[in-house]
Amino acid sequence: MDKQSKNGGKITVKINGEKTKYQEDLLVHDWQLGTDELAAAKDRAEDDSFDWVLPDEETKSPKEYKKINYVQEKGKKKKKSFKGGARDYTIFLYPLIGAVAIGITLGFIILNVITEGEQSTPAIALQEEVSSKGEESGETSGSSKKIQAFSLPVLQAGVFATEESANEMQSSIESKGVPAAMISSNEQYYLFVGIGENLDTVKSFGKKLKEKNIEVYAKEFTLPEKQIKVTANEADFINKGMNIFTTLAQESITAGLENKVNESVVTSIEKQQSELDGLKIKNKTLVSMKEDLTSAFKSIKEYSSTADDAHLQKARESLLSFVEKYNKL
Description:
four-stranded antiparallel sheet; three-stranded antiparallel sheet; Alpha-Beta Plaits; 9 helices; extended; alpha+beta
């Protein structure tokens, strides 16, 4: 270090054997000054030191817990509290009352269902709205009764918007030896050429009519509900007469398909027909309907003995007339 200070901080460098002057100012650090600053910092750190005094902690043992037995004094009984008891009983009382009420209601419902199931239902149910005296004799002046809707399988030969058009087609069909009936419903006019008890039999009969160039369509047709004023005998006639009507209509078609009459059916109808003869009827339309049933039954009996199709045609004509009058009630 002394040699560097004597040369004045100059360094001589030779490049390719030639001297080149180069001078660099060097920073000279005062090492003694650095030592003094370090000592001062150390003294300051010693002055800033703080002695922490922590309290002495004594280790305490956990407390010992002892079991205490309580002994009830003799002769003293614990009193029972009935506070709030009534409220507890109502919790069970209300559901019990509700269950009993529901059970009674269900019992009445089941009883009504069983009672209704035991009653016989006629082909057309009549509901009486106004009662009158003398119902036992069946010759009362009449009361208002409701005739429920009645559905039956038919062979339809057309439906028309005007009565004139329906009449023209009816005349054309009857000219071919086939009876037809015109029924008005919902401002339309329907032409029927056959009525039966089931749709399959009606369809089979429709095939025979197509051989006469009569286009038909088998379907279910519903006669609407009605409100009429009739006596007890007349109401009885409507119920029994509709049963006889459906049986006669079916037999008039089946006999034409099988070329014979079912004698057991004829015997059954004869018994029912005798019941109708004993009913006194005053309503003119119902009297005419009764005559149609009697005529249809006689025609079927005549076909049974002669096998003449004309008698079956007559029977179908009477039955179609019955439906026309029934629709006008």
